[in-house]
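**Entry details**
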Amino acid sequence: MKQILPTFLLSVLLVGTSVAQANETTPEIENPTSKDKLVVLWTSDDPYVAERVCLMYTHAAKTQGWFDEVVLVVWGPSAKLISENLKLREKVKTMQKDGVILQACVACANSYGVTEDLKKFGFEVKGMGKPLTDYLKTGAKVLTF
């Protein structure tokens, strides 16, 4: 009986400690705005990757509230693809209406001769090196397709 009591007390102390640790509050996120931002860097010219992966996830991330802010960045061959593919443009237009921010690299757009098209489709066309660097440094989640 003498050994049972100390073991019982030890169990109570360990369980009590576990409950106390579980009830501790989680520390605040340092910068909640940048931590809840998704930047999707779309570089592929594959229409299947665009339709079935990149744009699908990006749109859902915004409409399902997985991230507060969602940015789609067109960079490289995707600039040409979006300018030529009506189905993808319609999808991106819907995404923009649902709150996805559209950006495109001006150097890429110029190299494919689609700068004015992208602007007409609602993209903010600008140099993207510094903005991408800022996204990375401020803790935004960056996903590349």
